[in-house]
Design a protein that fits this description.
The chain has 361 residues and is of the alpha/beta class. It is 27% helix and 25% strand. The protein has helices at residues 16-25, 46-49, 64-69, 85-97, 119-132, 149-155, 178-184, 202-206, 208-218, 317-330, 333-338, and strands at residues 5-10, 29-35, 60-61, 74-77, 101-104, 135-138, 160-171, 227-234, 239-240, 245-246, 251-262, 265-275, 292-301, 304-308, 342-343. Helix 1 (16-25) crosses helix 10 and helix 4 packs parallel to helix 5 (119-132). Residues 148-352 form the 2,4-diaminopentanoate dehydrogenase C-terminal domain.
Length: 361
């Protein structure tokens, strides 16, 4: 599209506030509205809510219909979806039916079609896109760019591929998301606590779409179901994190894998190594530098490994993790607006870059 895309941001949380800042800096985008869930934020200038210390002339609102009435080109949807997956899917479908394109950080189950959702869900999304002439793209950094686009680009250098392994290795002690940390990962809870993420099939629902997207990009058909492995470790002493206090003996570190096999042989593996203190479980994989990294390992001919690290200009890797998640969405807006209606995956998009963002002053 030639003119600036008119954009609405959905929420001002840990990702949404950075999306607002990113849109403000983007020459091809115009921020026209922001949705908030809190009455306390209703009517406030979104520049203040985003921590920009200046007004942007756009007031936050809890009025969903008023924002859709603006007829934006795209919604940058950054609302928390981990604890309301199916309600969030209904929101996204409604946006599509209203004729509004969407880029979203979740639910991550929509990253790529997979058996985790029944066929009728995928059919509803496609029907909604066709009805409104709108597209939906779900992505971020993980699940997202670090383990789909980056990994597939690396495989373009391969002569033979035996296994593709995509990894997040991170210290979550400064990651502020109490619901995710305690209720979903189970940090600070007993090792045998029946928290959501470790129930059979949940990992395949959350990260399985990454494995299926890599399989689609590589042209292989995986065995079903995917294989899940989980290893939870206790804290050796009491730990304080920004989200949850972790008592000695309760869950403090976890390593999991979601494995796609072909004829029983692992070919595509997603692995997370998550600590709440950098000294935990030293025998597990560690980042090459800093507090965390995303790692892609391609075994075959040749053997290849890429470690991707990031950190904020004035913050740690968890701050920049929110920024890169937001910017992957913000920078993809124009491509998604121009895409065919329906679900758009990373395999469907052209090369997305930081066009227009180079500092010239």
């Amino acid at each position: 599209m030639n003119s600036a895309a008119r954009v609405v941001v959905w929420s001002t949380g840990t990702v949404g506030r950075h999306a607002i800042a990113g849109i403000d800096r983007h020459p091809g985008l115009e921020l026209v509205g922001v949705w908030v869930s809190s009455a306390d934020k209703d009517g406030q200038d979104v520049g203040r809510l985003a921590g920009l210390d200046r007004d942007l002339g756009v007031l936050a609102t809890t009025d969903r219909d008023a924002l859709l009435a603006l007829e934006p080109d795209c919604i940058v949807h950054c609302a928390m979806t981990d604890d309301r997956v199916f309600e969030a899917i209904e929101d996204l479908i409604a946006f599509l039916e209203a004729g509004v394109n969407v880029v979203s950080s979740g639910p991550v189950i929509l990253l790529h079609p997979s058996p985790a959702l029944p066929t009728e869900f995928w059919e509803r999304i496609e029907a909604a896109g066709a009805k409104g002439g709108a597209s939906l793209h779900v992505n971020g950094i993980d699940p997202g760019w670090a383990n789909d686009v980056l990994a597939l680009q690396l495989t373009s250098l391969s002569q033979r591929i035996d296994e593709v392994r995509v990894m997040e290795i991170a210290d979550y002690s400064t990651y502020y998301q109490p619901v995710v940390m305690r209720d979903i990962f189970g940090f600070g809870q007993p090792l045998d606590a029946e928290v959501m993420l470790w129930q059979p099939g949940v990992l395949s629902m959350a990260w399985g779409p990454v494995v299926h997207q890599l399989a689609a990009g590589l042209g292989v058909t995986l065995d079903e179901p995917l294989v899940e492995k989980v290893d939870r470790r206790p804290a050796e002493s009491d730990i304080e994190t920004v989200s949850v206090d972790i008592a000695a003996g309760t869950t403090a570190a976890v390593r999991f894998e979601v494995i796609g096999t072909v004829d029983g042989v692992p070919r595509i593996v997603l692995e997370h190594v998550t600590r709440t203190h950098p000294d935990q479980v030293p025998e597990w994989p560690r980042p090459t530098q800093g507090d965390g990294c995303y790692r892609v390992v391609v075994s075959g001919e040749p053997m290849m490994q890429v470690d991707f690290t990031h950190h904020g200009e004035h913050g740690d890797h968890n701050v920049s993790g929110m920024i890169v998640t937001a910017q992957r969405l913000v920078n993809a807006v124009t491509a998604v607006v121009d895409a065919e209606p329906g679900l758009v995956t990373a395999l469907d998009l052209p090369l997305v870059t930081g066009r227009g963002l180079v500092s010239l002053a």
